[in-house]
Amino acid sequence: MRDGMNDGTGNRVVIKVGTSSLITRGEVDPVKLDTLCATVSKGIEAGLAPVLVTSGAIALGRTRHSTLTQDTTEAAQTAAALGQGVLYAALHARFAAYGLETGQIMLTPHDLVAPEHGGGVRGTLDLMRSLGMVPIVNENDALGVRNNDVLAALLSGFIEARLLLLLTNVAGLYDGNPLLGDDAVRIAEVTGPISEVEAVAGGSTGDGGTGGMLVKLSACWIATHAGVRTVVADAMDSTALVAAFRGDEVAGTVFPPRTSHCAAPDLGRLWRAFRNPPSGSVICDAAGQQAIESGRALLGGNVGAIRGSFDSGDVVDIVGTDSRVIARGSVRLGSAEAGAGGRSASALFDDCDYVRIFGG
Ligand SMILES: Nc1ncnc2c1ncn2[C@@H]1O[C@H](COP(=O)(O)OP(=O)(O)O)[C@@H](O)[C@H]1O
Ligand SMILES: N[C@@H](CCC(=O)OP(=O)(O)O)C(=O)O
Questions:
Q1: CATH code at position 296
Q2: Do 119 and 51 share a domain, yes or no?
C-alpha cells in the first residue's frame, strides 16, 4: 500500500458517485467500478487527498431479496443494510488492485452539523488521510434514507475541501434533461445565483438515481456557500477529477465558491436553508431587506407578500425589493401565520436562521 502520501493541506477533495454510475441492473458494474478507482488513483498520484462518497447500497440490496423491492422506507433501509456490504467489498477489492487501502465510514448529516459528533469523524478522517487510505462514505441509511449529494456537500464544507466533484450519468447540468431530448445544451459554469438555474433542473430519470439535478443543486448551494468549488461531471470521465481540481476545462458544470470556508457550526444553517428546494417565498420591504443584509431578524411586519403555501420548518426564499432572492432559510412560521398583518413583531426565522445568497 502507498503510505502517507497526502499531506492534508489544501489538497482535500470530496468525490461523490451516484448509483447509476456504479451499478447496472442491480449489480456492481466492473467497468464503472474500475473507472471510479482509476479516477481516484489518478487524483492521488496528482497529490490529492480524496474522500469518496458512494451510493448504490439500496439498488444492490433490492436485487438480492424480492421483499426489498417494495416501495417502503423499511424496505429501502433494509436493502441498504444488505447492499452496503456488497458495495464496500467490491470497492475495497478494486482499490486494492490499484495499491490503495480503504476504510468505510457511515454518516448522517447530523454527524457533520452537530459538533459533538463531528469531532470524532474529523479525527478518523485525519488519520486515514495521513495513512494514505481512501475513506469510503455512505449515508447510514438504516437510520433514515436521505441523499448522498447533500451529505457529500456537508462533508466538503466540514473538511474544508478544495473541491466537491459530483460524478453522475450525465456530463453536468443542461438547460433541460439530456436523457429526455437530444437538444439539451450543457451549462459550462453557473456564476450567478443558483436560483437562476433551478428551473431547468428536474428529477432523476436515471437508472436507480434519487433526486436528480434538483437535489444536486441543493448540494451545490451548500458546498459553494461553505466556500467549496463544486463541479458536476460524467462519472465515466476519469480525467475530470484532476482537471476540475486544477481549474482546467472539464466537460461538466462548474459552480465557483460563493464565500470563504465557514466554520463547522454554520454547516447546520446551510443544511437547514438548502436541504430542500424552497416551498415558497416571502417578499420583504426596504427595512426587511436592510435587516437581512446586516444579519438581523426579519419581522413579519417587514413582509409585504407571501408566495406559495408552506409550513413552519419549510425552506423559503427571502426576496428583496428588486425581486432578487437575497436569502433562503427554514421559516419559523407557516405561510398562514407569516402573512401580512399577522404576528408583525415576530421574527420569521429563529435566531436569524437564514443564509444570504452570494453570487448575484
Ligand atoms: N437539467 C438537467 N441536466 C442534467 N440532468 C438532469 C436535468 N434535469 C434532470 N436531470 C436528471 O438528473 C439525473 C442525475 O441525477 P441522479 O439520477 O440523481 O444521479 P445520481 O444517481 O448520479 O445521483 C440525470 O440522469 C437526469 O435524468
Ligand atoms: N445511500 C443510498 C443512495 C442515496 C442516493 O443519494 O442515491 P443517488 O442519487 O444515486 O446518489 C444508497 O447507497 O443506495
A1: 2.30.130.10
A2: yes
- Reported pTM: 0.94
Tell me, in angstroms, the distance from the centre of ligand 1 to residue 206's CA: 6
d(CA 246, CA 240): 10
In the reported structure, the alpha carbon of residue 161 is separated from the centroid of ligand 2 by a whole-number distance in angstroms of 21
Segment 302-348, tens digit of pLDDT: 988 899 999 999 999 999 999 989 999 999 988 888 765 446 678 88
Task: Compute, in angstroms, the gap from residue 334 CA to the centroid of ligand 2.
Answer: 31
Residue closest by Cα to atom 23 of ligand 1:
18
Q: How many angstroms from the chain centroid is the CA of residue 41?
A: 23
Q: Cell 428536474 belongs to which residue?
A: 202
Q: Is 252 in the pocket of ligand 1 (CB under 6 A)?
A: no
Q: Which ligand is nearest to the CA of 138?
A: 2
Domain hosting 310: range is: 278-356
Helix (H) or strand (E) holding 66: none
Q: Does the beta carbon of 302 sit less than 6 angstroms from any atom of ligand 2?
A: no
Cell digits for 232?
A: 458536476
Return left, alpha or beta for 233; rule: phi > 0 is left, psi -120 to 50 is alpha, else beta: beta
What does the radius of gyration of the chain's CA atoms come to, in whole angstroms? 21
Give the integer Cα–Cα distance in Å for 110 and 99. 33
Residue 124 lies in a domain: yes
Give whole-number Cα distances, 132 to 6, 35, 37, 310, in Å. 6, 20, 15, 47
Task: Write down the ipTM of this complex.
Answer: 0.99
